[in-house]
Every structure is written in structure tokens, then in C-alpha cells.
UniProtKB/TrEMBL annotation:
GO terms for biological process: inositol metabolic process; signal transduction. Signal peptide: none annotated. Mg(2+) binds at residue 100. GO terms for molecular function: inositol monophosphate 1-phosphatase activity; metal ion binding. This is Inositol phosphatase. The keyword Repressor does not apply. Its cofactor is Mg(2+). Keywords: Magnesium, Metal-binding.
């Protein structure tokens, strides 16, 4: 994954000033969307049938997109909008907003606190700017390619661990209804990582585990998925915090990769050794 591309290569102006101006605009838009999503949150689960739960999820998405899409498109004239948040694979050339209006929507609907609003600008299939806003805490995780990753303005750095046996790692499913092969790979990978690591967290969404990797609280996260909206924000945050982002075979990660691994450099090779035999 190559992230060191200045935003000023596309839009005239001084790089640092332009990056900050755009980041400020995106942060404001994501915060406003987060305020709305927080107003919709209750500590009690909503819906008892699968149909009712899906209805609640779509209602959250629609409400947030109503206030998020227009300001993001206005902040970067000419950028495109990736409509399907569960889609994977490469995008056409140019700039694209890849957004999850309620990352961890299933948690929001079930009254749990692990959810966020994310917006990532992708250029020619490389994430170059991201904002992850946690409405319940007010925290903003931000990154601009080549300019580092930050939490509320303070620099982030990945873990300094070098022993996988001491590592806190994580994974989770990317979407409901994965095929049986993917579910069995997840189970086998968790078993192998439990045998080689310290503790494995299995939860959703991916972004909320990846912010912990970028912050040095967790040491690695993997997922057998190519869902863009769940990976691009965290990939940029981890890379800009000094982490290593690849597929589970150790090859550089891209939007065309079949799976994903982000880790502290000191444990990355050992994680690849554990996970690569399970690659598709």
C-alpha cells in the first residue's frame, strides 16, 4: 500500500494548507453526521426480527447520508461517490468518496457503543485522506497520506511489540451472509492465532479495531474480505501510524486484494506465517 501522495497534486495551492483545509471540511461534515446518528441512538436494542433490524439499519444510513453526502461532494469538486458501502474491488480512476454513514450499524441498532461515521477520499485506488468520528466520545481519528495519523490532533503510533505471543489481535466478519468457506476460514484463523498469539478479539466493525491498531492498543487485525468501506479508513490510519498493511500472504494491500492484514511491523511477519496457509 502506497499512501504518500499529496492532495495538492490534483488541486492548486500549497500542500499543507490545502490538506488542512480539506481535512477541516471533512471533519466538520462527519461530525454533523455523527450528531444526527447519536440522536438516533438508544441503549436498548431496536427490532426483534431480521426484517425489523434491517429496516433500522437502512433508516440510519439514509438519515446520515442526507446530511453527509452534499458537503463531502462540495468539499472536493470533481470527486465521485461510491454508492454501495458493501462493495469491494477496484474503483475507476480518479477521486472517490468511500463512506460508511454508520460503521458498526448493527451495534448501533442493538444499543451497543461500537459505531462511528467514516469518510475516506480515495485517489486512483489509494486512500489519501480519512476521518473516523466516534459520536459517543467525540473522538476524531484522522490521517492524510504522507502527513501521519492523529487522534484529536495528537500523533498516533503503532505498537512496538515484536513477539506475536504477546500480541492482542483481532478479526471479524465483513458482512452478514458470508459463504460457508469464509466462515470456516475465520474459525480456523482464530484457532491458529489463539495458539500463536495472546488474545484474539472477534467483533465488528473492522474500523473500530483498526483504530486500536493505529493507536498501539492492538497489535494486528485481519479480515477475509475486500469490502472497501470497512477497510480504507483503517488502512490509511495504520499505514500513517507506522504499521504494515498487506494481504494475508504479505503482499502489498490494494482494493483488489482478496483479504487484509494490518499489523505492527514487529509482529507482521509472524502474523503472515500464521494466516497465509489459510489464504483463499
Amino acid at each position: 500500500m502506497s499512501t504518500h501522495t499529496s492532495l495538492s497534486t490534483v488541486t492548486p495551492g500549497t500542500g499543507a494548507d490545502l490538506d488542512k483545509a480539506l481535512l477541516d471540511q471533512v471533519t466538520a461534515a462527519v461530525r454533523a453526521a455523527g450528531d444526527l446518528l447519536r440522536e438516533r441512538y438508544t441503549p436498548q436494542a431496536r427490532g426483534t426480527s431480521a426484517e425489523e433490524i434491517v429496516t433500522e439499519i437502512h433508516a440510519n444510513d439514509d438519515a446520515v447520508l442526507d446530511v453527509l453526502k452534499a458537503p463531502l461532494l462540495a468539499s472536493r469538486p470533481g470527486a465521485n461517490w461510491a454508492e454501495d458501502e458493501l462493495a469491494g474491488g477496484a474503483l475507476p480512476s480518479g477521486e472517490w468518496w468511500v463512506v460508511d454513514p454508520a460503521e458498526g450499524n448493527i451495534n448501533h441498532v442493538h444499543g451497543m457503543p461500537d459505531w462511528a461515521v467514516t469518510a475516506t477520499l480515495v485517489r486512483d485506488n489509494e486512500p489519501v485522506l480519512t476521518v473516523v468520528h466516534l459520536p459517543l466520545t467525540g473522538d476524531d481519528y484522522t490521517a492524510v497520506a504522507g502527513r501521519g495519523a492523529h487522534l484529536n490532533g495528537a500523533p498516533l503510533r503503532v505498537s512496538a511489540k515484536t513477539d506475536l505471543a504477546a500480541a492482542l489481535t483481532g478479526t471479524g466478519q465483513a458482512r452478514p451472509g458470508e459463504d460457508e468457506h469464509t466462515f470456516r476460514r475465520i474459525g480456523s484463523a482464530v484457532t491458529q492465532m489463539l495458539m500463536n498469539g495472546l488474545v484474539v478479539r472477534v467483533s465488528v466493525p473492522a474500523t473500530l479495531q483498526l483504530i486500536h491498531v493505529a493507536s498501539g492498543r492492538m497489535d494486528a487485525f485481519w479480515q477475509f474480505s475486500d469490502v472497501r468501506s470497512g477497510l480504507v479508513a483503517g488502512a490509511l490510519l495504520v499505514a500513517e501510524a507506522g504499521g504494515t498493511v498487506t494481504d494475508t500472504n504479505g503482499n502489498p494491500w490494494s482494493l483488489t486484494s482478496p483479504d487484509f492484514l494490518a499489523a505492527a511491523p514487529g509482529v507482521h511477519a509472524a502474523a503472515v506465517t500464521v494466516l497465509s496457509p489459510l489464504a483463499a
